[in-house]
Amino acid sequence: MEYFVQQLINGVTLGSIYGLIAIGYTMVYGIIGMINFAHGDIFMVGAFISLIVITALGLAASSSIFIIILALILVLVCAMIISSVFGWTLERLAYRPLRGSFRLAPLITAIGVSIVLQNYIQISQGARVKPLQPIISGGHTIMRRVDENGEFVVQISNMQILIITVTIVLMTVFSLIIARTSLGRAQRACEQDRKMASLLGINVDRTISTTFVMGAALAAVAGLMYLLYYGVIDFYIGFVAGVKAFTAAVLGGIGSLPGAMLGGLVIGLIETLWSAYFSVEYKDVAAFSMLAIVLIFLPQGLLGKPEVEKV
Amino acid sequence: MAEATQTGTGAGGGLELAEIGKDLAITALLGAAIFGSTIAFKTETATGGLSLVLRFEEAFFVIAAVVIGRLILLLTVWRRPGGTDRTFVPQALQTRYTEFLAKTGKAFVPIVLLFAVVFPFLPFTDRYLLDLGILILTYVMLGWGLNIVVGLAGLLDLGYVAFYAVGAYSYALLAQYFGLSFWICLPLAGILAAFWGIILGFPVLRLRGDYLAIVTLAFGEIIRIVLLNWYEFTGGPDGLSGIPRPSFFGIPFKRGEGGFADFFGLDYSSIHRIIFLYFLILVLALITNFVTIRLRRLPIGRAWEALREDEIACRSLGLNTVSIKLTAFATGAMFAGFAGSFFATRQGFISPESFTFIESALILAIVVLGGMGSQIGVVIASVAMIGGFEIFREAEQYRMLIFGLAMVMIMIWRPRGLISTREPSIFLKEKKSVSADMVAQGEGH
Question: Which of B30, B37, B217 sits opposite A243 (nearest CB)?
């Protein structure tokens, strides 16, 4: 039981990270109907930018808690801004010229962009795994049991609390942006009918750019969380994380923001529980099989609307 | 990379100086953000944590190169009279390109074929060039196989390399456990790969275009992970080695009595086996091509193409879309299986390393850059890609970067690939080639 609760906590943490990445997929897919295959790599870039800023600041666990919080906010802002620039530039250069082209064209450039980003980071930052000393340490014991097998403790670390809190805050903020602001209205309008939206005076190109920027910023947050949580990154983390986050977006119902978060949690839990009870080697197989199963039996996802095919 | 495409036009014509300045300033700013962050600061693992290596000069040069590159583009290619739309390639050049293709197109195919046949016997052909030729032909065959799935049936398959892996492992394992020879395993590998195509395809082929793409990608990864972790059976990351070499229909390539050289009264040379492998893959590739061309004329091939154009119309005309998609998937997979078992026998060693996603992306890139559905386009694209890879062999580090950039740029320049005209397989009165730009295809749903 304690073991299960512990895995549950770990799964929710991992799921939060996937959920943050998944939002980028879901928003872009919702608005222009393309899978931004390079989104996972934007997440990777975000993690690297965070690493660079953390190293530049010389941040370590020994600093006082106040300094750590201030510094992490600075890291977060830098990573979000620079990743957004990456996202914006990619949209401008690789996707916009192909708008209105046939459907597979942007997906193929997206694969190209993904290869470019991975190799660019590999060349500029080196191919080796980058380790980071833990910055946020400590935790709280929430359950404790002593029996003949020894003591078993369920812990939630400060890092996990941070990840879950940041995710909840960002989710709320972004949901409000989509639901309440004129930008969000423009996005929803473009999602429904791009041509009509532009006839009504919405700058469609700018709205799409903003969507990419928002997605990239969230991916950067996820990148920082991943870096702090796992403590190691390399240029390849974006691929697997990207596919899993996409699975999460599909599972939740593509185009739906709460769906992406829910999907992320489900995928995170499946992966963690699978690793805990079955085998670590096949955890990716579990996540990928989940994608196939969901698409076959529930193509519209948990919270999505069923798609109507039109002639 | 860091170029903003915000270019305005002056009222009379050409770009205003101020606008160029603004544009370049934005470019420089974006460049500073992108390259200034990742090139100027490099994290290095040092004792007691990470340290930063500063490389401001390199970053500055890259940013300067990008800004100057953009300036040149603005002053030359993108310069246009006000009011016209910007195209990446001037229209005149595009028409000339099409005319050139039309003129050379007819003579091109026989010349290429003839060259491929005599290539091993040309005086300058050495071991290195032959190996390169075999590699290119392997990709031509894979490209043609994938062309059935992507080009004809319009199904985007990002996990094609899985079937290639199935073929390679089928041969390697059958040879290892049952001692079967290459010539028995070749058809078996194709059949097994086709079976896998059906097993994987059956549940997922109801999906729409890009969902299908991601699921096939996931399947490709699943197969690779299983190969990597099923240590007892597949050797895991160590792979399988000592895979038997092919024989000349039962006559082994060995020195002395009973060998190939002895049988035909030639002097023994290790190049004989390479030349044989070259012709083997050439024949396999041509079989793939021939089967594809014939299939296009059969009802099933027509159904594939109809499916690519409009799935809903297909269904309303009473075609069983699931079985049509499955046949396309299985046929494509079968050829990948053949190519896989050829790969295994040529290398003598296989491991999951050879079957990563990047391989699928490469094959897909060949099909798309060649022009989906065009057979000769696949050949041109394979030569360009694999040849290009060889040219950049010196710059080992940079070649994947260049590959990715080329993929993006060619897609933007010619979204429909190098050969974008379509040969109709059925016509009333006379044959006209259809420009692919005229048809809205590739929807895959």
Answer: B217
Task: Evaluate whether B79 touches B14 at the Cβ level (below 8 Å).
Answer: yes
Q: CATH number for the domain including B369? A: 1.10.3470
DSSP B220-233: HHHHHHHHHH-HHH
d(CA B276, CA B272): 6
Structure tokens that stand for A98 in this block:
């192909």
Cα distance between residue A67 and residue A65, in whole Å: 6
**Which residue, among B37, B56, B317, B398, would best test binding to A if mutated, counting the most A CBs under 10 Å from its CB?**
B37
Q: Which of B66, B86, B106 is the last residue of a domain?
A: B86
- The band of B8, judged by pLDDT with boundaries at 50, 70 and 90, is very low
Chain A residue numbers touching B44 (CB-CB < 8 A): 126
Residue of A89, A94, A288 lying closest to B408 (CB–CB): A94
b/e code A8-47 from CB counts within 10 Å (16+ = b):
ebbbbbbbbbbbbbbbbbbbbbbbbebbbbbbbbbbbbbb
Give the structural domain span for B420: 95-438
Taking CB atoms and an 8 Å cut-off, how many pairs form between chains A and B?
197
Q: In Å, how far is B74's CA from the nearest CA of chain A? A: 15
Point out the domain boundary residue: B62, B86, B110.
B86
DSSP secondary structure string for all residues of B358-392: HHHHHHHHHHHHH-TT-HHHHHHHHHHHHHHHHHT
pTM attached to this predicted model = 0.85
Among residues B117, B141, B115, which one has the least CA distance to residue B375? B141
First-to-last alpha carbon distance for chain A, in angstroms, is 53
Q: What share of chain B is helix, strand, coil (3-state, %, to 5)?
A: 65, 5, 30
Task: Place B440 in a pLDDT band, splitting at 50, 70 and 90.
Answer: very low
Name the residue among B410, B333, B342 with its Cα closest to residue B146. B333
Task: Give the separation between CA A281 and CA B40, rounded to whole angstroms.
Answer: 37
User: How far are the Cα atoms of A118, A215, B360 from residue A114, in angstroms, in the given order?
Assistant: 6, 15, 14
> Does B445 map to a domain?
no
Instruction: Calculate ∠ Cα B365-B370-B371, nearest 5°.
Output: 105
* ipTM of model over 0.90: no
Best A35, A119, A213 member to test B by mutation, with max B CBs in 10 Å, is A119
User: B127 and B82, same structural domain?
Assistant: no
A93/B403 Cβ within 8 A: no
Residues of A in contact with B415 (CB under 8 A): 98, 101-102, 105
**Residue holding tokens 């309303």?**
B316
Task: Tell whether the torsion through CA atoms of B360, B362, B365 and B367 is positive or negative.
Answer: negative
Q: CB A89 to CB B4 under 8 A?
A: yes
Cβ contact, residue pair A115, B5, below 8 Å:
no
Please tell me which of A123-132, B394-403, B420-429 the model is most confident about, judged by mean pLDDT: A123-132
Please report which confidence band the pLDDT of residue B15 belongs to, taking 50, 70 and 90 as the band edges: low
Work out whether strand B41-46 and strand B421-422 pair parallel, antiparallel, or are unpaired.
unpaired
Q: How far apart are CA A233 and CA A226, in angstroms?
A: 8
The answer to whether position B288 is within a domain reads yes
Cβ A107–B52 below 8 Å, yes or no? no
Who among A89, A285, A299 is closest to B222 (CB)? A285
Question: What ranges do the domains of chain A cover?
Answer: 2-237
Q: What is the dihedral of CA B99, B100, B106, B109, to 10 degrees?
A: -140
Same domain for B57 and B103, yes or no, is no
How many domains does one find in chain B? 2
Same domain, B275 and B204: yes
User: In terms of domains, do B74 and B115 share one?
Assistant: no
Q: Give the mean model confidence (pLDDT) for residues B328-355.
A: 92
Do B297 and B386 lie in a common domain?
yes
CB of A95 less than 8 A from some CB of B: no
Nearest to B408 among A113, A128, A239 (CB): A113
